[in-house]
Amino acid sequence: MTDRPIVLVTGGAGYIGSHACRALTAAGYQPIVFDNLSTGHHSFVAGELVTADLLDGAALARVFAERKITAVMHFAAASLVGESMTDPQKYYINNVQGTLSLLQAMRAAGCQRIVFSSTGAVYGNADSKELPEDFPCAPINPYGASKWMIERILADYRGAYGFGAFCLRYFNASGADPAGGIGELRDNETHLIPRAMMALQGHVDFAVFGDDYDTPDGTAIRDYVHVTDLAAAHVAALKLLETGHAGGSFNLGTGAGFSVREILDAIRQETGREVPHTVKPRRPGDPTYLVANPSAARKVLNFVPRHSDLATVIRTAWAWHQKAHPRKAR
């Protein structure tokens, strides 16, 4: 037995969830990972793992009955935007129904604190250099819509049942644990930095989608926040819930943006190699700018990114990808 407060981490075998587990352990908590391993990795789990699905109410009930769980961090979700357009049912069942199943188990066990992994995708086609939380949410794909629905559900659970619930809207999660061992690893990699590094290592092709945007170099600009900083924000949110804070929705970004070409240039500077790429037309729905206004998180969560300078993001990501995707001839 342990005196450490127990936190259930759904999706804790995934990219952000596994980093959050390490942050929880360092902060004096005992994370219990609940993951069906559909996209997560057993090797990313440092502590206890319960291999089960959120739709399995009996498995959830057992987890809560056998342990004194004080709070939940909820990362488990299907998260591919493109797939959500072709298979929306998967996203509404997995993300929304799965969350309702989790909340039902939490209520039955008297556990009322949750930190939810939301997304900047709730804003939809926002095109902003400084996106605030009160910007109207109008998701343009089922993935973003499912996350927005969950935010609404959690707001209702706050009001009706007294839940404390933080919804943390990430912008572009990036980088890897400086200590090594975990990072971005997906069967279908769509994110810019890992895909560029996989292309450098000879694993995939890489395309720049659009070089005619109204930006200094013609490529789209995004806000990149280091996964270690995201994990720290989750722990800060949890600590606030323990003081009785009701929660709310907060952007997690840096407030600064980098273009696709700036990212490729930073990778070249770190690796000494040029990322092989082609230029293709813009993708429908890709805004020119998507940069957070993080001032609310700074004020409430004391969120000050310490690892999100571009050099650190690229250096830690590259250290990981050299291990995860060894160079091969093409």
UniProtKB/TrEMBL annotation:
Q: Which co-factor is required?
A: NAD(+)
InterPro entries named in the record: Epimerase_deHydtase, NAD(P)-bd_dom_sf, UDP_G4E
Residue ranges occupied by any NAD-dependent epimerase/dehydratase domain in the UniProt entry: 7-253
Q: Which GO terms describe its molecular function?
A: UDP-glucose 4-epimerase activity
Q: Name one Pfam family in it.
A: Epimerase
Give the metabolic or biological pathway. Carbohydrate metabolism; galactose metabolism
Tell me yes or no: is Isomerase among this UniProt entry's keywords.
yes
Q: Which reaction does it catalyse?
A: UDP-alpha-D-glucose = UDP-alpha-D-galactose
Question: Which GO BP terms sit in this record?
Answer: galactose catabolic process via UDP-galactose, Leloir pathway
Concerning CDD domains, the annotation shows: UDP_G4E_1_SDR_e
Task: Cite the record's note on assembly.
Answer: Homodimer.
Q: Which family does it belong to?
A: Belongs to the NAD(P)-dependent epimerase/dehydratase family.
Q: What is this protein called?
A: UDP-glucose 4-epimerase
- Organism, as annotated: Bradyrhizobium stylosanthis
